[in-house]
Amino acid sequence: MILADELIPLSTNVDFPLETLRRFHGRTLARADILDCGATALFVRSTTRVNKDLLAGTNVKFVGSATAGIDHIDVDYLARNGIGFAHAPASNAWAVAEYTLAWISILAPDPGSLVCLVGHGNVGVRVEAALRELGYRIRIYDPPLYGESAGTLTDIVEAADVLTLHVPFTHDTAYPTAGMLSDRLLRSMKPGSLLINTARGGIVDDDALATLCRNQRIRAVLDVFQTEPDLPMSVVESVRYCTPHIAGYSIQAKLGAASALVKAYSEWNQHGTATIPPVGRIVQPVGAGCVGTNISRLRTVQAEAEYFFGRYSEQPDRKTFDELRQQYKLCNEVLSTRFVVKT
After folding, report:
1. Catalytic residue among 98, 228, 304, 333
2. Where are the domains of the chain?
3. CA-CA-CA-CA torsion for 11, 14, 20, 26, nearest 10 degrees?
4. pLDDT over 90, % of the chain
């Protein structure tokens, strides 16, 4: 039996036989649910914390996460107990990159601006490539990859016209990112500069950021939050450009992550190991039908933020946050898509 988050797009009798797949709600899954159905595999999203409390005493032998980040997974526990694991790095990289580029085009349209990228992984390299094509000046801070050849984090923060974050949430590493942008560092940003966080909540001190935005010292875009899914209205009201952790949402990202997990699980079943295949470009015939309402989100992010602000202001709680996240209408990516014109 496979237990899968209800929002992961899997096809019964295509990906798995109907009788082997059961769905669950991401924030409510409990150990008793796993024991009740005798599940041997678990497919989750970032809303489910996978650790000893959830898995101890169950029959789960494989965990797949349809996410790039894995801070919700206790990978050490899985390894110690011989539980296979796979996730979907890069599956949503183009979606996050397009979201970031959309905000930069709206709030920092001058190509002469200096954009400083903190993190140069799957998302960062895509953002950099697009911005260089547009003529922006770029600096990159990623000490695990390059040391501090580009300067210290303080140097980067102080220099940036736009500071955009593309790092995992880490504690016990040489360069931990938890609490990385403290009140002190945020106050060192240029007046009028822009911070974009699509990485993980907890990297930025949201309360300190809200104070600076409220005083019109800097501007910010937040797609992830320190206390997610319980967002203080003080943060939402002060930052204003907020969305409910949907930067990585696109048709291609969702399908790509699900496909990667299916392939990894199949490989694990056959060989006892699992690897994630690289995510390629999607071939989308022009005019082909799909479930999105827009060909791209490049011109919709501001409207998305305004809609989120209006709805969340009416009822500021986790239920509203999750509903807005679940009801988000997926769009096609543009930068990852190779279009084929039918003649």
Report:
1. 228
2. 2-87, 90-250+281-343
3. -20
4. 80
CATH architecture of 2-87: 3-Layer(aba) Sandwich (3.40)
Predicted confidence (pLDDT) at residue 291 exceeds the cutoff of 90: no
Q: Which of 72, 200, 219, 297 is catalytic?
A: 200
Residue 230 burial by Cβ neighbours in a 10 Å radius (0-12, 13-18, 19+): exposed
Q: What is the pLDDT of residue 10?
A: 86
pLDDT, average across residues 163-191: 96
| Residue 227 CA: distances (Å) to CA of 214, 235, 317 | 19, 10, 11
Task: Provide the mean pLDDT of the chain.
Answer: 89
Q: Among 207, 204, 109, 210, which Cα is nearest to 166's?
A: 204
pLDDT at 283: 40
Among the listed residues 168, 166, 198, 195, the one whose alpha carbon sits nearest the alpha carbon of residue 182: 195
Catalytic status, residue 200: yes
* Residue with the two structure tokens 């190509």: 111
Which one of the listed residues 245, 297, 304, 333 is annotated catalytic? 245
Distance CA 274, CA 78 (A): 13
Residue 29 pLDDT exceeds 70:
yes
CATH topology of domain 90-250+281-343: Rossmann fold (3.40.50)
Residue 281 predicted with pLDDT over 60? no
What does the pLDDT average to over 148-171?
A: 94
Question: Does the active-site annotation cover 171?
Answer: no
